[in-house]
């Protein structure tokens, strides 16, 4: 309880795990497992940041290039095309409209972005905001599976420690809700606790939640029937530790082609906006 007075230093995970060690009288082994969880999650976060660093830089560079082309390059060509009396093609007309909007309303765009960022930052600090944010991240293609597998790994690892330490199931679920690190999955626990309290077991209620895969449900069911729930949970944790590594690598491999397609779309748009009227101008000059 004393550690909870320093939330910036000791997260809910640390406090909950130490509390579990105190309840079971097995603090050293719990701390050893806690160190493993912290090191593994740090590695996963580092791998995700490394995988997203290159796409992030490319997207920023692409955005800067887009603005420069709209504000510097396109107007010069448009002025030349207008003097010739050409009817501008659709891509060029779109580029002209974007240029006019950006030049005349840049302050509105900047102010709108600042307001949106500030409002989201405040909203995401609320329980409902955390739930919406975490639910959204879990549904994003490519990135979502990584977050989901990382959450399942943490769930199984912490649950295994609690079961090994002899913490009652209902108390374990309460601790898991605080330490799972994902508000969407934490709320799923809260919704399932009533059914578990009624004696429906653990695996049966988990089937109704979309966040728990059939493999997790089946292995927990086997653990309940055999009395080796903690061992099954450790196997689940090991499996998803490996799955997270493969998912991060797959995410890195999948983002590359998406960036290439996005880059090709931007380059193609400006190529059409500039070269289509130039082609018409060339034909006009040869007449």
Report on the structure:
This protein is mostly helical. The chain has helices at 12-24, 27-84, 90-104, 106-123, 127-139, 143-164, 169-179, 183-197, 203-206, 214-226, 229-285. Helix 6 (143-164) runs antiparallel to helix 7. It starts with 11 loop residues before the first helix and ends with a helix.
Core attributes:
single chain, 287 residues, mainly alpha, 11 helices, 83% helix, 0% strand, elongated, disordered N terminus
- Shape, principal axes of CA atoms: elongated
N- to C-terminal separation? 87 Å
Alpha-beta classification: mainly alpha
Order of helices and strands: HHHHHHHHHHH
Quaternary: single chain
Radius of gyration: 27 Å
Number of helices: 11
Largest sheet: none
Poorly predicted runs of 5 or more residues: 1-10
Helix content: over 70%
- The portion of residues forming beta strands comes to under 5%
Beta strands, count: 0
Q: pLDDT average, as an integer? A: 79
